[in-house]
Inverse folding.
């Protein structure tokens, strides 16, 4: 009997001692499993995927043994809405974020003009007139004082307006007689001359005539962005509105096998050069490093530019309600076209009127079972009519929300539409989450900082990173830490049809994880945004180390 028992014990030991490629132990691990928070003390992974997690260090032999030093380990965080090449380009261009005055922005451009420039164009981004004393849009004269030889194009922080100089207007042929396109504005002075600021679809008059980005330069910009992302704990991002040159660059990077982070792409459905990709169908592979199965379409503008389509007039601009960027017929035609090719439709909607229009279209264009399968989304879902909050769950439409928008917008948006309308349905993250709707968290980087811990902090505290307001701006719309963690991991993966591949550290999932200097679940809520990443792994490979 003892002999038989000994054999059984030996067999059990041998099974438990099976060769594993890597064991990460001495950690405080966290993951979501079936909607609940699960903790673990060790993580075993092989061939890029999780084998299993353990409640205590197991008695197994592994090729690689990694002592986690008692640090917290989370699944790699996912951003459901960013602009990857735009972020990479911004890191290499004029950075106007944080400028305190129009002259401050002018000074930064002046310094950048000292660098060699062979293209004749200079690009930058990040200005926000709401943070300037005058709160007025800038003018071309400020840029004309710097150069009359180089075309300057500066994106507003939200990407819904550009500030250009006279050289740019001359090159693209914009003057006092240029008609405004549907959904766009060419701001003009008292004499009827263009001021140098173009809003929403009017931006395309410039953007479509700028020099095409070199294929290799674009790959470098994407890699710059991806490397920045993984240094901050983000292992996957949904790239919102990519054009065909970006698709080609992403495919090239995937084929080279050098991408440090995953990309879930949304085709810009209005880019005609994307039509071959749309007609060819979903792009995916076994590595899940780069997938394209959705499209992005804009329905309105933003609050900052007063381009958001509202049901009632803006409080600070009587008679103005914003506007839809396209006619209802055009918007519907593009959505139908994408759906016909089997693509998820992700529609940008900021204002309550835009959100109502998009929800109505989703309801009319597909029946409930198909909508549930396709997981169509509204990007931002920022200002909702109270009656529409429950419709997301009812219709099976997901909400891709961006918590840092609330803490960044708080002063401006109260001026735009007043506190009463905000309390009725503005930035109602908790109500959407608790309604049972599918909700995923993102940032809209580089409109907001790419750091995902900023988003976690914002949705948990409803404060900005200066700790204001002390009681939170929308305290009744905060989520607890588990809910917020869910928002940027498992739920974000679901919005990308990847809930069985990433977003959790469970057997069979890709071993995408981050090791932190502080425990997200234990650090003070006000300090969540200060958390630093020590190491980042994607598919079991170390892609970033703070060392």
């Amino acid at each position: 009997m003892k002999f038989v028992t000994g054999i059984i014990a030996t067999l059990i030991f041998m099974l438990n001692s099976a060769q594993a490629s890597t064991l990460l132990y001495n950690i405080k691990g966290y993951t979501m499993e079936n909607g609940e928070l699960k903790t673990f003390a060790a993580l075993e992974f092989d061939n890029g995927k999780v084998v299993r997690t353990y409640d205590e260090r197991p008695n197994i032999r592994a090729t690689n043994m990694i002592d986690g030093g008692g640090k917290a380990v989370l699944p790699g965080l996912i951003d459901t809405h960013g602009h990857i090449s735009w972020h990479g380009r911004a890191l290499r261009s004029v950075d106007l974020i944080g400028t305190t005055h129009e002259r401050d922005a002018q000074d930064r451009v002046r310094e950048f003009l000292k660098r060699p420039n062979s293209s004749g164009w200079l690009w930058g981004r990040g200005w926000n007139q709401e943070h300037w004393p005058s709160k007025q849009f800038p003018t071309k004269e400020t840029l004309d004082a710097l150069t009359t030889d180089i075309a300057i194009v500066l994106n507003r922080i939200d990407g819904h307006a550009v500030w250009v100089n006279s050289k740019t207007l001359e090159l693209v042929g914009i003057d006092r007689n240029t008609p405004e396109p549907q959904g766009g504005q060419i701001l003009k002075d008292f004499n009827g001359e263009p001021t140098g600021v173009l809003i929403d679809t009017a931006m395309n008059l410039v953007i479509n005539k700028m020099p095409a980005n070199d294929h290799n330069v674009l790959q470098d910009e994407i890699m710059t962005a991806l490397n920045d992302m993984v240094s901050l704990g983000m292992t996957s991002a949904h790239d919102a509105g990519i054009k065909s040159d970006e698709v080609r660059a992403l495919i090239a990077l995937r084929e080279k096998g050098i991408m440090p982070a995953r990309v879930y792409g949304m085709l810009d459905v209005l880019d005609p050069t994307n039509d071959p990709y749309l007609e060819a169908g979903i792009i995916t592979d076994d590595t899940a490093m780069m997938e394209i199965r959705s499209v992005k379409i804009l329905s309105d503008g933003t609050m900052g530019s007063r381009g958001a389509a509202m049901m009632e007039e803006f409080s600070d601009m009587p008679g103005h309600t914003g506007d839809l960027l396209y006619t209802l017929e055009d918007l519907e035609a593009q959505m139908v076209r994408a759906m016909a090719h089997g693509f998820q439709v992700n529609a940008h909607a900021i204002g309550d009127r835009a959100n109502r229009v998009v929800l109505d279209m989703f309801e009319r264009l597909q029946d409930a079972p198909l909508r549930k399968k396709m997981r169509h989304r509204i990007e931002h879902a920022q200002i909702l009519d109270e009656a529409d909050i429950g419709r997301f769950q009812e219709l099976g439409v997901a909400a891709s929300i961006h918590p840092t928008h609330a803490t960044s917008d708080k002063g401006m948006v109260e001026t735009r539409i007043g506190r009463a309308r905000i309390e009725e349905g503005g930035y109602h993250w908790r109500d959407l989450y608790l309604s049972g709707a599918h909700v995923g968290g993102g940032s809209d980087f580089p409109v907001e900082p790419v750091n995902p811990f900023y988003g976690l902090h914002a949705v948990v505290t409803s404060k900005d990173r200066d700790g204001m307001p002390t009681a939170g701006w929308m305290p009744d719309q905060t989520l607890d830490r588990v809910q917020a963690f869910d928002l940027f991991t498992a739920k974000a993966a679901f919005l990308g049809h990847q809930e069985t591949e990433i977003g959790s550290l469970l057997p069979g999932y890709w071993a995408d994880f981050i090791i932190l200097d502080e425990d997200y679940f234990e650090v003070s809520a006000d300090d969540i945004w200060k958390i630093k990443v020590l190491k980042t792994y994607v598919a079991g490979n170390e892609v970033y180390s703070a060392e």
